Amino acid sequence: MKTFLMLGFLGFSLISCVKTDDFEIPNVETKEFELDGKVTNIAAVKNNFDSENNVIYTFSETETYMEAYVVSTDEGGNFYKELVLQDRPESPTAGILILVDNNSLFETFEFGRKIYVRLDGLSLWQNNGVIQLGKQNRGDVVAIPNSLLDEHLIRTTETVEITPLPLEISEFSTKHLNLYIRLNNVQFNRNLVRDDQRFTFAGEQTDQYDGERQLESCITGATTVLSSSTFSDFKSLLLPQQSGSIEGVLSRNFYDEYFVIAINTPDAIDFNKNRCDPVFFSCGDVLIPGPEVIFEENFTNITSKEKLETEGWTNLNVNGGNESFEPGVFDGDRYIRISAFNTDENPLEVWLVSPPVDLTNSTIETLSFEIMASYDNATILEVLITNEYSGNPLTTEWLLLDAKIPVGPSNQYGKKYLKSELDISCLDGVINLAFRYLGAGPDKTTTYDIDNIRVTGH
C-alpha cells in the first residue's frame, strides 16, 4: 500500500456548475489518503486494449491505480469534458485521455497536477484513433459521471512543471498521442495570415465544431494541423503572423485521418521570429490589366482530359498514377479540378502546364486566375511560371508566384473563387504557367477548382 497527501474537497459537486465571474474555488483541507492497492503506469494500462479486434476492456477487481500527470485544461474551452494525462512530467512515453462528465476540471485537476486513477469499474477503448478511459454503457465508453469523480480520480498535493516533448512534424507517430509536445521553428501557412485574408483560430463561418489551421515547419517543410474548438474562448483571435514555437497535446482529427495539435491557451504559441516563406518571383505591383488579351482560358470548351491536352495543356502525374486534373461543370460553369480524395496515391504530385504564351509583342503584362478550395485539410497547391520551359515540368527551372491560394471549408464544397492578379511585366518571350498539386491520400486531399486564366497587356 502507498500513503500520500491529497486534498479533500467540500462541496465537490459544485464543480459541475456553470462558471461565473464570482465563482469561488471550494474550501480545501489536507488529509491523508491511503492507496489500497497496486500502482501502475499509463503504458501498462493501454497494453490491455486489443487494437486489432477493437474490443472494449473493463477493469474489474484489480485493485490497481494508474499514476499520471494532467497536461490539458478546459479553462479556455478547447478541451471539453476530458482530461489528457501523461506518465511523466518530462520525457513522457505514454499518454491517455479520460472522459469526464464535468466542464470545469481546471478548478480541481489543473495543468501539471499529479493524480491517481482508480481503474476498477473503468473501461478502455479506442475512438477516432485515440485510446480513452471511461465508463462502459451499452457497447460504448462514455464519460465518468460527476458523482463518481472522487471515486476514480484522486488528486494529490503535488503540482509539477511539465516539460514539453520536442518533436518534429515528420516524427509524429501513434506512440506520441496524448503527449504534451513542442514544435520549434514553425509558422502558419501564409495564406492564413495575409493582411488581406487573415484567419482566426476557429471563428470563420465555415468552421463547424473545430477550426483547422495548417502549420508548416521552417526546417523540413512538413505540415500538420492546429485544431481549435469553435467553443473555445479564443476562437475569434487572429492567428499570429510570424514564426516560432507552439506547445500542445498531440491527437487525431475526428475521422482519424491525420494528426492534429490542440493547445490549452494561445499563450502556448510563441511566434516572435521572422517568417520563413520561400522566395517569390515578383516584377512589381502593376495590377491594372491592359486592354489587350494575350491569352485566355475559361475551360468552356474543355469537356475531357483529351480535349485539355489537344488545346496544348500538359497534365502530368509525375508518379505514374491515374489521378490528374480533370474538367468539371457546375451550373453551366466549367473549370479544372484536382483532388487526392479517395485515391491511394501518396504522394500525389500532378502538374498542369499551360500552352505557350508569347509576350514578345506586348508590354506591362498582368496574369490573373481564380481558385476555389473545398474539403480543405491542407494548402497543397502552388502556382509557378517560366520563360524557359523544357517540355518537361520536372526539368524546368520554375519561378514561384505569390498566388492567393484559398483556404476553403473542411467539410463541404467551396462557394466562391479567390482571384489572384500578378505583375509579370518583367518577363520576355514565351512563357508557360503551371499549377502544381502535391497531395497525399488520405490526409492531404484538398479539392481545388481553377478557372478564368488570363494574360493581358498593352
Task: Kindly describe this structure.
The protein is elongated. The model is unreliable at 4-31 (pLDDT under 50). It has 458 residues and is mainly beta. The strands form six sheets. Strands 3, 4, 5, 6, 7, 8, 9, 10, 11 and 12 form a ten-stranded mixed sheet that branches. Strands 22, 24, 25, 28, 31 and 33 form a six-stranded antiparallel sheet that branches. A hairpin with a 2-residue loop joins strand 10 (130-137) and strand 11 (140-142). It folds into three domains: 2-159, OB fold (Dihydrolipoamide Acetyltransferase, E2P); 165-273, Nucleic acid-binding proteins (OB fold (Dihydrolipoamide Acetyltransferase, E2P), Beta Barrel), CATH 2.40.50.140; 292-457, Sandwich (Jelly Rolls), CATH 2.60.120.200. The N and C termini lie far apart (87 Å). It is 3% helix and 41% strand.
Secondary-structure blueprint:
Blueprint: E1 2-9, E2 28-35, E3 38-40, H1 42-46, E4 57-58, E5 64-70, E6 82-86, E7 95-99, E8 113-118, E9 123-127, E10 130-137, E11 140-142, H2 149-152, E12 153-159, E13 165-166, E14 180-188, E15 193-194, E16 197-198, E17 210-217, E18 223-229, E19 243-252, E20 259-262, E21 269-273, E22 292-297, H3 305-310, E23 314-317, E24 326-330, E25 333-338, E26 348-353, E27 357-358, E28 366-374, E29 381-386, E30 399-400, E31 418-423, E32 430-439, E33 447-457
Parallel strand pairs: 3-5, 7-10, 13-14, 18-20
Antiparallel strand pairs: 1-2, 4-9, 5-6, 5-8, 6-7, 8-12, 9-10, 10-11, 14-17, 14-19, 15-16, 17-18, 19-20, 19-21, 22-33, 23-26, 24-25, 25-33, 26-32, 27-32, 28-31, 28-33, 29-30, 29-32
